Structures are given as structure tokens and as C-alpha cells.
Known about the structure:
Elements: H1 2-17, E1 22-28, E2 33-40, E3 50-55, E4 60-65, E5 71-75, E6 81-86, E7 92-96
Antiparallel strand pairs: 1-2, 2-5, 3-4, 3-6, 6-7
Amino acid sequence: MKKIIIVCFLLLIPSWASAHSALCSCFDNGDGTVSCEGGFSDGSSAVGVRIFVRQLDDKTLIRGKISKEGEFVFSKPDGDYKVVFDAGPGHQVTVFGKDIFE
């Protein structure tokens, strides 16, 4: 029984060691545009990760991807909105427009 527990524990270590969290922060550039930076807590790149600007009812206004510089810049929409950094299940970050400042 001890061998089975040890083997199961050892099989789980790689998933713990490779775990990382998605990170996204956005700021108002003061010129009608917003910049968002994305990445992962382990320092890995988010190049190509999908990012969406949506109304609060989830209607997509703008879609794009994180650039090789690790950012996405868009024209600030009128009204309430949110930014969704979508690196897949368990790796999504939502930033609400009301929380984005200069």
C-alpha cells in the first residue's frame, strides 16, 4: 500500500512543479487607448494569447492577441466594458473597465 501512495504522489509532482497563473494588468494611456500586459507567474511568455474587450453582457467588441512585446493596445470603448485575457481553461483573467486608471 505504501508503494502505491508513493507512486501516486510522485506522479503528481510534475503538475505541481509546472503550475503557473495567468497575469494581466491594464492601464489607461490617457489618449483614448488602453494598454494591457499579459504573462504568467512563472515568467513564461503570453505571446499569442487571445484577449477580448467585451461589453458587460459578454458581447465582444474587440478581439486580438498578446504581441511579442507582451501587450495589447486598443481604443477605449464607450460605456462599461471588461478585458478578458484567455489562455485557456483555468488561465483566464478579467479586468473591468471601471478598474483601469491612468
